[in-house]
Write a structure and sequence with these properties.
Keywords: Membrane, Transmembrane, Transmembrane helix. This protein has 199 residues and is an all-alpha fold. It is built from 8 helices and no strands. The chain folds into 2 domains: 127 residues, no CATH class; 62 residues.
Length: 199
């Protein structure tokens, strides 16, 4: 019964958000109270709807950092669904869903900047990997007197592993650091709701 009531109330907030209706102070309090008492079995689509509603409200309040927080959390869940290597939240039911255009547009507005940052990160990782290859190759040849071909293969494999590992690790680390930096702009109730899904 409580779960049905939760879904019904959330649906009202979602429909008002789609219509572009800004919450009044009392309506926002009611929304945050709803978020404080979510349904027990939270699925990823419901989670994203909550972040979308909150993010759109923050946008209307011109709280861009809080809106970006919500958009980045939606993006994180989308990536968890599409990239199986990405660790999904333990307490969230991860089922594929079709994202509506308005939610997708909101997410993209605040996360498009990540593509340029990731491209820059990949370039730096590549340069660091090339440097690592050169250093390891020289050490193997000049100091350990390994044959050139064997040294090349060993240095190349080490550099390749480093590139693969860092390319996967750094974007996730950047997102987590970015979220940490802007979470102070987000209402405590929403942060408390989100906490179990950020671990």
């Amino acid at each position: 019964m409580e779960q049905v009531m939760f879904e019904e109330q959330l649906h009202v907030f979602l429909e008002n958000t789609k219509k572009g209706i800004e919450m009044s102070g009392s309506e926002k309090d009611a929304f945050l109270k709803l978020v404080e008492n979510p349904k027990e079995e939270m699925d990823v689509f419901t989670y994203c709807k909550i972040m979308y509603i909150a993010g759109m409200q923050y946008e209307k309040e011109e709280n861009k950092n809080a809106a970006r927080y919500c958009a980045m959390r939606i993006l994180w869940m989308v990536e968890c669904l599409s990239k199986k290597r990405k660790k999904a939240p333990m307490y969230l039911i991860m089922e594929d869903f079709t994202m509506e255009e308005d939610m997708k547009n909101f997410m993209n507005r605040y996360t498009d900047f990540l593509e340029d940052i990731y491209a820059d990160i990949n370039q730096k990782v590549f340069l660091l990997t090339a440097g690592l290859f050169a250093i390891v190759f020289l050490i193997l040849v000049l100091f350990l007197h390994i044959e050139i071909l064997m040294a090349f293969i060993g240095a190349f494999l080490l550099a390749l592993f480093n590139y693969y590992f860092e390319k996967r690790r750094i974007p996730d680390m950047f997102q987590k650091n970015q979220l940490k930096a802007i979470e102070t702009y987000v209402d405590k109730q929403l942060l408390d709701f989100d906490l179990p899904y950020r671990r």
